[in-house]
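User: ok so my PI wants both of these folded by tonight, can you help

Assistant: No problem, let's get them done. Here's the first:
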Amino acid sequence: MAEFVRAIPCGDCHSMVALPYIEAQAASCTKIAPMHRSPRRVTITVPYALYCELLARSDQQGRSLSNLAAFLLEAAISSP
């Protein structure tokens, strides 16, 4: 399986550095000033039953499915 590589600018010397795509995404997240960070889109595939549960829960709470998914992911990441 081929490994995807992405070139990102080096913060120190401003030359381009090749990193595996996931590492490049993580590295670029730490280099953005806090006031310039904006939400990013993520696409995931979930089982149909989970989709139905999430859709029903988002409807009960009066929020979008996207907002509920973001809330649940943030809660899962921040809990020990």
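One down. Here's the second:
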Amino acid sequence: MPRGNPDNLINNADLTPEQIKINTSKAGKASGKARAEKKRMSQIYAEFLDKDHDIIGKDGIKKKLSGHALLSSVMSKVLARGDSAAVSLMKEIREATEGSNYTHNLTIDNDFKIVKK
């Protein structure tokens, strides 16, 4: 479903070849920009995971954790909370690993049980 008001959409058949060329050029540039941004984010994630990080624990002791260990620790704490932050984290992980083209028709109650398919 397109964003905005569907009544404002113009069918390509109603456009001139020049207008179609302009629109496809705009779409291609926007797509390239989005791919470049996604690649930059992937590089940032990869650099974070490759580094060791100095962490001060609750006991005040400083220790080094790899990016993978730190990410695992933080994810475990966030997911254990079971709140909207946990859902956002799961969405971010899914989009980073699978892409964002998945939609569903599920309703989930407060106990994380599927109510309706």
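The chain has a mean pLDDT of 80. The first helix runs from residue 17 to 50. Good luck tonight!
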